[in-house]
Amino acid sequence: MTKLSLTSLSSLRVSRQQIPAHPSLHIPNTSLSNHPLLIYHSCFPSNTSSSTLSSHLSTVGVVEPQWTYSMYPTTHFHSNTHEVLLVLHGRALLCFGGEDNPGRFEPEVKAGDAIVVPAGVGHRLLEDRDGGFKMMGCYPVGAEGWDMCYGKEGEDKSGIEKKIKSLPWFKRDMLYGDSGPVLDL
Question: Does residue 14 contact residue 39 with C-beta atoms inside 8 Å?
C-alpha cells in the first residue's frame, strides 16, 4: 500500500470561514458553534488513490470513508455529524451556507483539497468545472450514519439545533493526527 504524503503543516494553506445562519431558511451554518468551515488546500497529492486515502484515514482513526461521489446539487446539511470531504478528482465551485444567503461562501476546490464541514453548514455543488468531480465523504468513527436536512418548513428546528449543539468536536486531526488545523480553533 502506498503511504500518503501530506503537505507539511508549516506549508499548508488553510481557509477558515464562519458562515452566518441563513436568514430565510432554517440552515444554522456555523451560528451554533465556534467551529468554522475549513479547507486544507492541496494537503495531499492530486493523484492520490481512494485506497491510499482510506488506508491513511484508517491508520489515523478519526473518520471513516462512507462514500465516493460528487456533491449533491441541492443545498443540504447534517445535524447529527460533522463531515470531512476529500477531493479525489477534478475542480468544482461549491456553495456553503445556502445560495440565497448573503453570508454564503463559494470556493473553488480541486483534487488534493480536504474540507471539514461542521454539522449545520448547508452545502451544495454549484458547478463541476472539469467533468467527473469526485470526493470521498467521511464521518467520525462511531457516527451512526448521517441525516439529510434541507432547511425547509416542517423540519424539527429545535431538535436539529439540539443535535448540532451536542456534537463533540474532533479530538485529533483527521489527516494529521495529534496536531493539525482542526485542532487550532
Answer: yes
Report yes or no on whether pTM surpasses 0.85: yes
**Amino acid identity of 161?**
E
Q: Is 184 part of any domain?
A: no
Q: E strands of the chain, at which residues?
A: 13-17, 37-41, 63-69, 83-89, 91-96, 108-110, 114-117, 123-128, 134-140
CATH number at residue 132: 2.60.120
Domain hosting 105: range is 13-170
Q: How many domains does the chain have?
A: 1
Give pLDDT tens digits for 158-179.
899 999 999 999 999 999 999 9
Distance from C-alpha of 109 to C-alpha of 7, rounded to nearest angstrom: 16
